[in-house]
Amino acid sequence: MANHKDPARFLPLLLLLFAGSGFSALVYEIVWYQLLQLAIGSTAVSLGILLATFMGGLCLGSIGLPQLPSARRHPLRTYGFLEAGIAIFGLLALFEIPLISRVYIAGAEHGLPGMLLRGLVAAVCMLPPTILMGASLPAIVRWIESTPRGVSWWGLLYSGNIAGAVLGCVVAGFYLLRIYNTATATYTAVAVNLIVAAVSLALASRTPERSGAEPVSEPPQAGELSRWPVHVTIALSGACALGAEVVWTRLMGMLLGNTVYVFSIILAVFLIGLALGSGAASVLLPRLRPRLALGWCQILLALGIAWTAYMIADSLPYWPIDPLQSRSPWHMFQLDLVRCLWAILPPTILWGASMPLACAAVASRGRDSGRTVGGVYAANTFGAIVGALVMSLVLVPWIGTQNSQRLLLIVSALSALFVLIPHARSSRSMPAAAALAVSLIAAALLAWRVDPVPGALIAYGRQIIGFTPVSEILFTAEGRNSSVAIGRYYHDGALEIDVNGHVEATNEPFDMKLQRMVGHLPAMLHPNPKSVLGIGFGAGVSAGTFTRYPGIQKITICEIEPRIPPISTQYFARENYEVFHNPRTHMVYDDARHYLLTTTEKFDIIASDPLDVFVKGTAALYSKEYFDAVKQHLNPGGMFTLYVPLYESDTRTVQSELATFFEAFPYATIWANTRDGQGYDMVFLGQAEPLKIDLDEIEQRLKGPSYAPVAGSLRDIGISSAINLLSVYTGQKADLGRWVKGAEINRDRDLRLQYLAGWGINSRMQDTIYRQMLTYRDLSITPFTGSGPSVQSLRAAIASASGGQ
After folding, report:
1. Model confidence pLDDT, tens digit, residues 636-649
2. What's the predicted TM-score (pTM) here?
3. CA–CA distances in Å: residue 280 to residues 161, 240, 290, 523
4. What CATH number was assigned to the domain covering residues 12-209?
């Protein structure tokens, strides 16, 4: 009979069930974040709201379920119903989020009302399922009583849940969303939830309402009042864990490339550490004194945080490895995984161990298991919310990543005092007190030795090995959304602005030409532009181009990072004509997509110069739905230009970009920017109506006295006439449409482009892609009109610019 009631025979099944729950939770989290960011934006404030809502739901669930009577229903039956509820709400969210997003966009405001509305949208979408997720751990552990052996099983279940989350993170990031879309990912998670629910309900009908438990072999722990030090310690541990995740994800993202795959790898490694730590602590619990172990775990975490800070700032950037040597994404991702494991795993193992240690520290005979675990989990989750929000919204932009890591290290060490000082007092152990004092002094010394992130890492990220010998860093700054650097090349003194580990703009001739083409092409081809929206500031060159045109009355620039415009102006004022200080300029600091979807203003020209498409989140500025929104915000006859790089890209990525653009702008035209005669990057030009370019009229306008500043700006980039400007014509849908036939359209529901672009980041195909496009170009169906000599001159110039093709 003892064997029949012995829960050990069901432990593998319970571990599998709870791992399935963790798998689904991470799939949902990734899908919801992607869908909600499309509506409320990708700023630090928006992401903070999303994270707080998700973690807040877990916190509420872990607090709320233990308040329900425990004897009315079999714990596994309750768990089964929770999993079924998660499946229902997860499925609803897939259809609910787009609907609520439309309502939000229709009534969105800026400032505090806008933040509150974003929070409401996130709460409506995510709180119902996340509350049920938070209740699942207290529900399942109610089946296991508060004995030493039972407490070990609590930790093993928690570890299994995180292990499932690791699998969910990897499968969602590398398979479900890369190959399929958010709908398929959601259906997969729903199916897993329903299977877990069905097995749990079946198991509940075949087992007693409480598992058999061995007799308690030690006296009960201290009363209720003694639990608060443990709750405070585990809350501070959660705050440090999520705060560190915010900082290290930002820094490791710069080092590894900021692709969607990199973020999946970083999150997976963080979860691997938590799973390993919680599993190891659960196995060792019978041989540990939980409160002492919890305290010393926090002391060791100070060493772990110092380890990771050292690895990121002083070691990993200088490993003699060039990730560009291999074009295989799998080789690149394996290298990224190794570096993440080496840097992040030690402290995450200790954070993982803290949870079962805290549960064991407050467990006592006869106390509701769900209430015990729920209280600890709620404290840990609440701390995580505070840590993530304070770190991302306050500390990093205020004191930077170096001092933020120092603070995390100190707080982690100090959190141990809540459980170690009472022990030192009660035991009157001088050696223990001395060891604690020495440990705190050591933690302070470790904090002092934390170095700042290298400026070269902010500037060059994954290409630091190649760029560091040929350049110097003049300035760095860490903002709320981005880290910014200014560099200078040794060989020619050219300046560059770098954002989050990638060169965004330079004043090299080939870069200047591209940046000014983004502005000059629509401004020259539009008959009378008056209002402009610039997406992204960068070096300010594209936006500054519009200051040269006499008829343009208002230049609105939307930039996600407030630190960039003043820094760029300090170093690129001559190149950008000090557009930041121009009286016609109106700055908006917001996610570009969010601003465009929520503003009621329309423009004659929208010029977009966003981050490179492989950067996580940027694909939202290349989707069919976004392009449709751009079209709706153009005045009649309005024009839209989009910067598209060919470097660090492959054929499938560029074909997807172009096919999506043609889908929204059937009359679009494509214009190339070459480097030393080789393909390099491009400008897509879209408008709602067929484009007709009168060469004689443009040439006459360019020669007029009011356009003298425009002509001067063009001469600065080697363009002496309208023929020179337009000679980079590469094609339109009528001819290039054959090249992109069958290409994947980038839509909001899948944002496939970020997975394509991240996969092809090591490709060196820029000239190959350009030559492929030229083979499809048909110069007999161009949009150019004018006198015979003008058209013939342009045809000759086009042939010359493209090497005779």
Report:
1. 999 999 999 999 99
2. 0.93
3. 14, 21, 13, 64
4. 1.20.1250.20
